[in-house]
Design goal:
Blueprint (H helix, E strand, L loop, with lengths): L8 E4 L10 H4 L9 H22 L5 H16 L4 H11 L8 H10 L3 E6 L3 H10 L8 E4 L10 H11 L6 E5 L2 H10 L2 E5 L15 E3 L14
Helix pairs in contact: 2-3
């Protein structure tokens, strides 16, 4: 497998890629165990749908509000809506667990000379809390939020913002996302892309083509030629 060359920065999506969004419901004892997967899946689906719909409508609200509204829909749909449960799940979303391989992968990339960053739909406060809670503070050169451009991925302005903040060109970025739609969009934008297909998704029928597909970020360092 050929390495990707010319990379200066490794940029990561946050939710589902660095942080396990399923860990909120998994850590919430108030939810019956047999309902946790349903809650997680519907909450995530509505969260993403609302980002895309708000972007199309040009009615931006930050990711914290969108996440709360998606949770409200989910709890109502499952017939388990209470204020206490909502508050508990929103609190847990601020301290999602990082996937086990993430800290070591970031250390390895930094030791090889790559800049490391997050580029996420998450609001700045959400991302800061998640990074701090997972102990990743010293392993990232930048934590960048779509909130700065007031539109969500997959709008090109979000990817362009990442380039501007890092001072690199698109082809100098290896972008990692577990979300197929995000991986394909970043590729169509011009970034090199490693799709971390944690969930066994099918390939999208969208513009773009990731350079590599992996199941864990632990596979990433071997795919990248060290910066010159």
């Amino acid at each position: 497998m050929s390495q990707i060359t010319g990379i200066r920065a490794c940029v990561f999506d946050a939710y589902g890629t660095i942080f396990d969004f399923a860990s909120a419901a998994a850590r919430c004892a108030e939810i019956p165990e047999d309902r946790r997967a349903a809650l997680t899946n519907l909450w995530r689906d509505k969260q993403l749908q609302y980002t895309w719909l708000r972007s199309l409508q040009d009615r931006y609200a930050d990711f914290w509000q969108v996440t709360g509204e998606a949770l409200d829909f989910t709890l109502d749909s499952l017939g388990i809506a209470t204020q206490a449960l909502r508050d508990r799940l929103m609190d847990l979303y601020l301290t999602l667990s990082a996937f086990p391989e993430v800290p070591a992968t970031l250390r390895q990339l930094r030791a090889a000379g790559f800049a490391t960053a997050i580029l996420s739909n998450g609001s700045p406060a959400m991302l800061q809390a998640a990074v701090r809670g997972a102990g990743l503070d010293g392993l990232l050169d930048a934590v960048l939020s779509a909130d700065a451009v007031r539109v969500f991925k997959t709008h090109p302005r979000v990817y362009e913002y990442g380039l501007q903040q890092l001072g690199v060109r698109a082809e100098q970025v290896s972008f990692q996302s577990s979300n197929a739609w995000d991986a394909f969009a970043a590729s169509a934008f011009g970034m090199r892309v490693v799709w971390c297909n944690r969930y066994g998704q099918r390939r999208e029928r969208l513009p773009g083509a990731p350079d590599h597909e992996v199941r864990s970020l632990a596979e990433l360092p071997a795919l990248l030629a060290p910066p010159a």
